[in-house]
Design goal:
Elements lengths: L1 E6 L4 E7 L10 H6 L2 H4 L12 E2 L4 H14 L3 E5 L5 E2 H12 L9 H8 L2 H4 L9 H5 L9 H9 L1
Parallel strand pairs: 2-4
Antiparallel strand pairs: 1-2, 3-5
């Protein structure tokens, strides 16, 4: 998702680019554990190729970054992603450890595309996106690590 902030009288422009929005009720984090039979039965695994980067952001930081952009007047693009970018295989290994479930059976990209349509490829973007503007502008992430973010969300 993208949020644009334009103010032509003061020449302020900002564009917030977010990572996959998987922290809400319709996302992949809790449903992978709570609703997905495959994961509950111990058959969870990476979504698509293990070596693809999977940018993420905790919901507190997603909201915090929007607020920071509006309050600071940051101009230009701002990536609303965690400073810790992980590959899909590692991401799912951490999720499995936090959930007490194994993670070994990958879901092929084609299966994701067939099951989720246009959303399928979005779950395996493969881009290493960093929040350079936020970090250089002084934003402090409340959940900068995947382990901390998942621990908070799965508590």
């Amino acid at each position: 998702s993208t949020i644009n902030n334009y103010n032509t009288s003061n020449t302020i422009f900002s564009c917030i680019n977010t990572s996959s929005d998987f922290w809400d009720h319709s996302s992949i984090c809790r449903p992978v554990i709570d609703k997905c039979q495959r994961f509950r039965w111990g058959l969870g695994g990476p979504l698509g190729p293990r070596d693809r980067y999977f940018p993420w952001v905790h919901e507190t930081d997603a909201a915090g970054l929007v607020r920071w952009v509006l309050e600071s007047g940051e101009e230009g693009p701002v990536n609303a992603v965690s400073p810790e970018c992980r590959r899909m295989g590692d991401w799912m290994r951490v999720l499995a450890a936090q959930a007490g479930r194994p993670s070994w059976l990958p879901v092929p990209s084609l299966a994701l595309r067939l099951a989720l349509g246009e959303l399928g490829p979005a779950l395996v973007p493969g881009q290493r996106i960093m929040p350079r503007a936020a970090l250089s502008g002084g934003y402090e992430f409340s959940q900068p690590t995947l382990e901390g973010a998942l621990s908070d969300l799965l508590a």
